[in-house]
Amino acid sequence: MFLIQTIIYLLSFIAIWLGAGLIVRSADRFSHKLRLSSFAVSFFILGMLTSTPEFAVGITSVAEGNPEVFVGNLIGGIPVIFLFIIPILAIFGNGVKLTHQLSKKNLLLTLGVILAPSLAVGDENVTLVEGIILILLYIILFYVIEREKGVFDTNHSNILNIHSYSYKDILKVLLGVAIVFVSSQFIVDKTLLFADILRISPFYISLIILSLGTNLPELSLAVRSVISGKKDVAFGDYLGSAAANTFLFGLFTVMSVGETFAVQSFFKTFIILLAGLSLFYFFSRSKNDISRKEGIILLSVYIIFVIFEVFFATNL
Q1: Distance CA 193, CA 233 (A)
Q2: Are residues 106 and 144 in contact, defined by beta-carbon separation less than 8 angstroms?
């Protein structure tokens, strides 16, 4: 019985990966036809679309009255992206060149927005007001980066040209969305089932395991980036995806109708996340890249994070 449930769980993650892949590839073709700026495509469009699994899981968890699932999943995405996926990109790609980097000020702002949900959970509960603030933070980030980089090339954008859109790609996006949402239903249900079987909080399963599964699109981009050498595009997507998680966190908190939900003893987790992001910022600003050695250090922080969370989850 347990083995069958585990297989269904894993197959659901594979389905989410395939569905998100359909969405991202089709949207990428759209963006080139629409002549949007490359940074806009990477940071905002691909960043938001690779968060489709998180969106689907969040909608399902809110609908079923289990907000701790989306809380753990979205916060878990921070170490997965910055302490696991990007370090892997650096280790196997012999470093990550941050060619489409933000200014020092805006990179700090982006990382601050990314860390904001963890800060909100730091007092062991999240409220409606904090949810609204998180949404506003993402909107402010969008405005600031649009001023620096420009989301749309206003002189050449084809966004209003109907011929820029392919019906085939639209159908693929819709199919991908359907696959992701159906899979998310199984994922949330099995997460709750395993939490009950193992007698641990769904928050910790979501933080450690679910966050890995819903970030498979980002992981697949890392593999493609290593093979093709286009690591700069992937970096923009990872920043955008992590920032989009802040928007989703705020949205789902508001959708929970102001429900306050507790996360016990989260402060130590917040300290690890803060230390990890601080290291990432220091490494990325030192030489405008992350070396293989620095990638190993960041990956080590992720391993420490996982060990700590597993130990704490099993000793509550």
Answers
A1: 38
A2: yes
65: helix, strand or coil: coil
pLDDT digits (tens, 9 = 90+) for 178-217: 998 899 889 989 888 888 888 888 999 999 999 988 888 7
Asked whether the predicted pLDDT for residue 156 surpasses 50, the reply is no
Which residue shows structure tokens 């899981």? 57
Predicted confidence (pLDDT) per residue in 96-122, tens digit: 776 655 778 888 999 999 999 999 887
Question: In sequence order, what DSSP letters do the residues of 97-119 get, joined into one string?
Answer: E-TTPPPHHHHHHHHHHHHHHHH
Indicate the CATH number for domain 38-55+66-153+200-313: 1.20.1420.30
The H-assigned helical ranges of the chain are 2-34, 38-40, 46-49, 52-63, 67-79, 86-92, 104-121, 128-149, 167-198, 202-205, 211-214, 216-228, 231-255, 267-286, 292-313
By the 8 A CB rule, do 188 and 65 touch?
no
Which residue type occupies 184? S
Residues 6+ apart with CB under 8 A from 51: 241, 244, 245, 248
Residue 315: which residues within 8 A CB-CB, separation 6 or more? Answer: none
Residue 118, Cβ neighbours under 10 Å: how many? 22
Check residue 78 and give its pLDDT.
94
Q: What are the residue boundaries of the structural domains of the chain, listed by start?
A: 38-55+66-153+200-313
What are phi and psi for residue 36, nearest 5 degrees?
-80, 155
The residue whose two tokens read 């700026």 is 37
Q: CB neighbours of 99 closer than 8 A, spacing ≥ 6?
A: 232
Distance between CA atoms of residues 22 and 314, nearest Å: 37
145 with 43: CB under 8 angstroms?
yes
Q: Is the pTM of this model over 0.85?
A: yes
Which positions ≥6 away from 229 have C-beta within 8 Å? 93
